[in-house]
Amino acid sequence: MKIPRLGMEVDVPPNKTMLEALEAAGVGMISDCRRGECGLCALYILDVSGTVDHRDVFFSDEEKAENRKLCTCVSRVAGGDITIDTADRAA
């Protein structure tokens, strides 16, 4: 995944969530439930070349269809790459 604001690219291994990969890369993340329920770890999607696999229950079906944000604790991209904005978070 690409994070232009931080000038970073972070790989997400198959056995890790996006949230775990961001934390391991030193990105200051806010999270709580880690089950896709609270929305604290949600980030804006700037660009995506694959299919966003929304696995959360926080966003409505309409919000998921817009692909504007995703919960990094449970959701991921299948068959492509994603560019996200960390907004107020820093590396």
Architecture overview:
By secondary structure, the protein is of the alpha+beta class. The chain is 14% helix and 26% strand. The chain is built from two helices and seven strands. 29% of the residues are buried. The mean pLDDT is 93.
Layout of strands and helices, then pairs:
Elements lengths: L1 E2 L4 E2 L8 H7 L17 E7 L2 E3 L7 H6 L2 E3 L4 E3 L3 E4 L6
Antiparallel strand pairs: 1-2, 3-5, 3-7, 4-6
What's a concise summary of this model?
This protein has 91 residues and is of the alpha+beta class. The protein has two helices and seven strands.
Beta-strand proportion: 25-35%
Poorly predicted runs of 5 or more residues: none
The shape is globular
Q: With helices defined by DSSP (H or I, 4 residues minimum), what is the helix count? A: 2
Distance between the termini: 14 Å
Record keyword descriptors for this entry.
single chain, 91 residues, alpha+beta, two-stranded antiparallel sheet, 2 helices, 14% helix
